[in-house]
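dumping the sequnces here before i forget
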Amino acid sequence: MKKILSILIGFLAMVVLSSCENLFIEKDPTSNNRETFRYLWQKTNDQYSYFELKNIDWDSVYNVYNGIITDNMPQEEFFGHMFDMMATLKDGHVNLYSPFNVSRYPELAVPDSNYDVRIIRAHYLSDYYAQTGPLTNDLIHTYDDTGAKVPLVKEVNGENKGILYVRYSSFSSMISNYDIDYIITRYRNVTEGMIFDVRSNGGGSPLNIFQICKRFIPPSSGTITLYHSRNKVGPGPNDFDEWIPAEISPKGYHYPGKIVILTDRGCYSATSYFATAIQAVKKLHPVKIIGVPTGGGLGAPRGGQLPNGWYYRMSVTQTRSVDGDTGFELGVPPDIVVTQQPVDTQKNKDTLIERAIFEIFEGTW
Amino acid sequence: MNLQVLLKCYLSLLLLGISFAAFAQEEKPPTLKKQHYFIAGINYSPSTKSQDLAFSPLTYKGNGIGGTVGYLLTSENFEFLFDGGFDFGILYTDLSGITDSGGNIFYNVPAHMHALWKINPVLSSKKNMHFKVGGAIDFSGNYRGNFSYTNSSLNFEYISGFGLATQFSWDVFYQSSGKFLRKKDRNLTFVWNFSLPLMGTYIRPSYNTISNFTTGANFISGEGKSNFAFIGDLVQVNSRLEFYYHFHNKNALRFNYVWRYYGVNEGSSGTSKGASHRLGIAFMFNLTGE
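..and the predicted 3d for all of it:
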């Protein structure tokens, strides 16, 4: 019996002391440059969602960098080559994060902005503009004969009506029901239209898109689709799941007036989703987008880690407008193309706001 | 002290206790009466590993602490155990602090349940030794948060499995000798449980590791879907080495060591594997009454 016990105890000891999981969990890959390059290329090949739209030959990219990357290359130099490799995707949602640097899509790092906060606050808003949550709001102002700033009004159907200006600088700042309903109830009866300024808004949470659009569509709209999204579900170039609708129903207080959205190339990610959603809102309510195409960013990014410990992110979804357009990844086009004119800048005028004022008071809707 | 050394010391002492008990025990007729216990205790995991290839090719390692609660119904011929708990801590890669600036916060919720029956005539010549077999259900919810993964910061697997379980146990009785540590009679139980689910379900993040949050879906769901798998694509192994010290008021103290391994070969863009070594101490409240 003691012999059996000895065998049993020996077996137990073997089981509990031998870190059995090492038999099943693979060892870490080597963290050298070539291994890391191959991993990043492969992960991008399997997961990136916009090769076809952007007409990118990723295999040829491999051939280029396969001939360049060596294991004895300094880390900064290796990072520089990976920076260039990922920049071929022309996507602001693609980044490489090392302890000493972050790669980016160079064009969007310095977008052509049409927005000058100084001009707007000094010449179009009163000194007492309101900050309701993340939304800066006030009536559009002008100067009277004495040089004093007064609300810009125009008689419409026998009533003096002004224009509401709302500035939303980042979709990362959450808009509460109270924030947006307060602004709408405060101004909806005294304004002919609203200028909703999202220029240089780099994105954030899509939940704010729904929060805004629920107030832009008429209360009788029922459930509507703002846009569709689909996910990469396999390594093949066309391995996507079904298009999934982003749906909303009216909520809170409706803004009944005309709406002008101001965009520029600095509008990215959630802001481009917002501009895409406006394509659906337009079918139910008078809305125009004025400015230049947004920066795009309609592929939601995922993150991950490389064998050498660095991190990456890249777009892994596609977005389609309600009209079936998948090309908005390259930028959502405005209804009226307007860029800031240097001559207006010299006169402290915002070309886009001037055009928006004209459209609200004089334009065809 | 090196954690691996600490772990091995703990286990060595546990095994030394078993050896000592096995060879130096004095036999006592087994009790037939059912005993009910409520179990509550604390855990320390000196070694936890995770390798989720959907997110990183690197293995994350670390340690954590936690708690456990359970219920035990035991008799000579039958045992039912439910043992659940939680562990949390931080995991790092070997490159952490060098080229890796992140880390995984982990939170595990394991639960084990088994029903075992004594098999005769195995070990029948030793009335204080029991060999039982039966079925077990193992569940594990493993959550890891790494904010360096941006939108993919939550990686997880929910695993449940049903399969076979087995148990060897020794009831040991030391009569009082009046000497140090033996001033009173002592009752001890040593148990080794092993369970291996043969089939089960799992939920992993989607292939692209993010949810459809741009369409309003829950951000933290990872768009995971429940799948069914047999052993091979879904592996769970639980080995539990336990030592009960029975007080004279019928309550008991439990020291245990649990080794757990899991592997999920499907469900996302890479396999997920992990293991933990957990040491625990728990009080067993006897609910049997008179």
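Chain A has a mean pLDDT of 92.
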